[in-house]
Give the backbone structure.
Amino acid sequence: MYEDKYKLSLHNSLTRKKEEFIPLDESHVRIYACGPTVYDYAHIGNARMAVIFDVLVRILREIYPKVTYVSNLTDIDDKIIAASEKSGKDIEEITEKFARIYNEDMAALGVRKPDIQSKATQTIPEMIELIKILIERDYAYVNDGHVLFNVTNFDNYGKLSGRSRDEQIAGARVEIAPYKKDPADFVLWKPSDDGQPGWNSPWGRGRPGWHIECSAMAEKYLGLPFDIHGGGADLKFPHHENEIAQSCCAHGKEDDLSAFARYWVHNGFLTVNGEKMSKSLGNFTTAHQALEEYKGEVIRLTLLSAHYRQPLDWSDDILIQNKKVLDRFYQVLYSMSDIEIDENIKADEVLEALCDDINTPKAMAVFNSIERKNDVEYKSKLLSAGKILGILQENPAKWLGYGQADDVDVNLIEKLIEQRTIAKKAKDYVRADDIRNQLSAMGISIEDTPDGVKWKKL
Ligand code: AMP
Ligand code: ZN
């Protein structure tokens, strides 16, 4: 039923060990990853998470017959309310615009849309149901229109992140909140005033806290337990700790933290000069801006150039380096334009490297050293591995810019190139150089390749 020649291993943050991945149901693997809050452009750090989980899903799809990937869009949150108040725009207008831009930018990075991408506001009834159960089971209490999760009643609170109680309180960045019994308690539901978006609930008109949306959505779309839960390392605490608390306590699984998700996968930070890229530090580049300067595959390969658990420092240098790698492979593919690939030939060695805890640097090293003994085999391997990594998916001539320009007279260029070839054959190098200079003055560069002369716009 599944490709048992590949053994996938993943570092599980819950056990702090690299483990063999054994799905609950090998005929259907289920994965959830926490997506962005859609009130502004996503930055490259957010994109790292999207690209990593896209690669993981592609690996899973190579091995298992069916994979369901669910991710959320947070479209109700205090930051969104603040953005709406500041701009005077409706919340839906803001969230719809930025959800669309997020999906367009991720598509440009080769990220396939999750099978189910659900907005938090589409899951409010399920969130209310879950909160009701938590109150019934004495894991949550109502105070002053708020519903709070009572962390002191859950002995295993802090097990995922390994945070002590003092660290939990410090990490929760709690303001003085008179409605909390304990400073580490977190909000499940809060009241909305008239000007704020709100839904009717047993606790009055209000809105959900952030953490409950993922517990409700994962259960609704995947069922519990499911296989893999992912997100950036910053989400381990408090977000994922709270998701585990909510879901395990609601289902009587207080002593089995894997009863929500079995494997927890966290990507490391994208950094700038060693500091986490974040909106609050102001050291961010949006995916949108980066895409104006670099092609999607260049950004994608750069995001995959470090192991996902390691930090990755963003700089133009690594982008340029990865552009060169792709240019070189596109040159190779261009030179093999006439070769038909054999769909049955796969780059098993690259997939094996990826199966070792998504080791993308190792996979790229293996990819670089695939031997070119036979063109059909070589091209087939490059393209099959490229499909899993999400690179080399473009037309080589287009990538290299050959014969591509909107605002030039293609006939004239080709005529000049032909005249230069004739001049060269006649050993009239002065004339040949004159033509090259004429083309260059028109903003066209030419290159003599084994397949003839190629031109592109400078
Ligand atoms: P947010 O919109 O801040 O909730 O983030 C959306 C996703 O991007 C989450 O999975 C975060 O963990 C992840 N993320 C945010 N900043 C970074 C960063 N600098 N590096 C890697 N992942 C990040
Ligand atoms: Zn989440």
In short: Residues 34, 214, 239, 243 surround zinc ion (ligand 2) (CB under 6 Å).
